[in-house]
Amino acid sequence: MNKREVFKSAVVALSAMLFMTIAFAKGGAFKAQYKSNELLVKFKSDVTQSEALTVLEDMGVDLKESLGLTFGEYYLVRTDVMISFDSAMTAMSGHPSIEFAEPNFLYYAIDDETPMEKILRETYSENLTMATPTDPKFGLLWGLNNNGINEPDRKGKRSSTKGVAGADISALKAWGITQGSSDITISIIDTGVQYNHPDLEDNMWTNTAELNGKDGVDDDGNGYVDDIHGYDFANSDGDPMDDHSHGTHVAGTIGATHDNGIGVAGVMRKVKMVGVKFLTGSGSGSLSDAVKAIDYSIKIDVDIMSNSWGGGGYSKALEEAIVRAKDSGIVFVAAAGNSSTNNDQRPHYPSNYNVENIISVAAHNSSDQLASFSCYGATTVHVAAPGRNILSTVKDSEYAVYSGTSMAAPHVTGALGLLLSNEGSMSLASVKERVMATSEYVSSYRRKMISHGRLNAYNLLIDRRPERKMPKDSDWKELALKSSFESSHPYDKNQTLSRVFEVSGAKYIRVVLKKYDTEERYDNIVVRDPVSRADVESISGSGDNYKSDYVEGSKIEVEFKSDYSLNMYGFVIEKIEYVPGDKHLAAN
């Protein structure tokens, strides 16, 4: 029996375990995508390279690449038709010399809600103040300066959407303190950057040691040939030119040039941005290229990494790469994801790794509400930032409007760049705590993120910490309703029920669902502020004695809507709870 036959027979008994290893992400239940027949393998620290190569040869897998990273030696291997991927994965996971083996997961630029359309080349003029950049399209950057009527539509024209004036990152006030610094270096780990875009080229990082041009020589001896403006790990060359647009859009939000007579302006007037491409023109990239991109960013000593991508399952290799960045004092800003799901329950990577340097960013819209597409998480997402209908730079020296947490994350990256420009070196713990504590408190974000708020760059710079208007548990009083509010049991198809409850003089109010049992995600009990018409919480599924999120003020509205399919028990509300104001008379 030859080595491959021995190897195949040894893994038969273990193969049943593989589905749990690959199909389920750590802490979640979705099938992750990965490169066919490719594995990333890390051997234990006492195994030499020659011993490792011998093990791989004995296993009958082909070595595709050795990744000599700053945080360890990894091996990218490929299985073949004689040794199945499943068998190799299972056997390697149990081999005494191997620390871990995992699929070469695929990651994606976090999809934009809007199509990638070029905007019309027209100038939108506003009454600009002296403190406002003169860039002709600045008036459409509601994320930097929201006047309530300046959200763009998909084509870059002013839309009819009414926003909330001031629901922005307070960029104009922040710029009165600092507009950034060329000493701050940020790596855009993405689809690349159009580094010669006229609105970006002045703020691109340049590796002066490689300025002899693309001569095929590693002039600075850093292991990367011709990395003048960064590196392309998707194609293994020194040209990180963006052939997709996603990374260029991210870069424009962070650092598009101010007052140059064209286009937009970034959160930072001065910065050095590095194009670190690992996502291809189709917007996808592999785990092996992702860890190399992070490692490269560590080697060139960046201050912040911008990461508007996600996918795959839990990866030990990716987590180790981020930990290495943490050990080097680098902030890792990550988009929270666009699947409208709770990251506490269904993890999104890389934003969900529990590493000190990660700041996970949700997206809010110009109306100061969490964007409909945005992921959230009361214990896993840190802060919200502008992410719907964001105008920025794209490839071919153009501009376009995209939506997504991909667009929110660079607002945070840029604001942190301003912070480091102003204060110099800070501990990662201090940076993370400060961005959350100085965020602008918004009641509708209470159960959506750790900070309960959205990014405010001015607060961040002056360390102003807005009050969190949150009542204590002991403050709540109970009030029985004169008549219950409930659905029929079971409820009807396409049913709508609503009721407004009021306690005169109450400071806060919430409802208590004695019982609810609805078709999850399709039949919902919505808790709303009847004054602002803002939805506070949507409840579905089943539970007992559930206390809803609260509304500030004396009134709260509950609306139930069912669809045309399953009819379940429904709900019952027999009491409400309130926090008294200075004067109150209970009524309902």
Give a description of the structure.
The chain has 588 residues and is an alpha+beta fold. The chain has three domains: 3-109, Peptidase S8 propeptide/proteinase inhibitor I9 (Alpha-Beta Plaits, 2-Layer Sandwich); 141-462, Peptidase S8/S53 domain (Rossmann fold), CATH 3.40.50.200; 473-585, Spermadhesin, CUB domain (Jelly Rolls, Sandwich), CATH 2.60.120.290. Helices cover 19% and strands 29% of the residues. It contains eleven helices and 26 strands. The protein has helices at 3-11, 18-22, 49-59, 85-93, 171-175, 246-255, 287-299, 316-327, 405-423, 428-437, 457-462, and strands at residues 34-43, 62-69, 72-78, 98-109, 180-190, 230-232, 270-277, 284-286, 304-307, 309-311, 331-335, 358-364, 383-386, 390-394, 398-402, 440-441, 453-454, 477-486, 496-502, 504-517, 524-528, 535-539, 542-547, 551-552, 555-561, 570-585. The strands form six sheets. Strands 6-7-5-9-11-12-13 form a seven-stranded parallel beta sheet, with helices on both faces. Strands 1, 2, 3, 4, 8 and 10 form a six-stranded antiparallel beta sheet that branches. Strand 6 (230-232), helix 6 and strand 7 form a beta-alpha-beta unit. Helix 6 (246-255) runs parallel beside helix 9. The longest helix is centred in the last third of the chain and has 19 residues, at 405-423. The chain is globular, with a radius of gyration of 26 Å.
